[in-house]
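Hello, quick one for you while I still have it in my head. My current little project is about how a certain protein chain folds up. You're getting the sequence in one-letter code plus the fold written as tokens. Would you mind checking whether the tokens look sensible for this chain? Here's the protein in full, and shout if anything looks odd to you:
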Amino acid sequence: MTHTHPIRVYYEDTDLAGIVYYANYLKFIERARSEWVRALGIDQAALKAEQGLVFAVRRVEADYLAPARFDDLLAVTTTPEAATPARLTLRQAVHRGDMLLFGARVVLVCLDASARPRRFPAALRVLCTDHG
């Protein structure tokens, strides 16, 4: 399942040249991942409160291909690529219309309240496998 989340570029997202500051793409894909998890029916606050589990980014490989500018309407896509008991790998992309501006491969891990690695809940792995 590819999930799409719209993002509008605000003035605060840009640098002095009027283009999106590079680090803000990471914020954009983070928001889109949160919305993807929500769309899967997973309540991250409940997961933390009930099981003490949270998701964390382990690795990001990013390609900046073209600039986004103030007031652009962007589409951020999130697509599961692989799921193991310990890691989820996602492909994320930021488009303006048909133009790919930014692409990333993101590896997520699951941590407990002490920041120790844990297995992802089986239900989440199944959802990613079924929709990936």
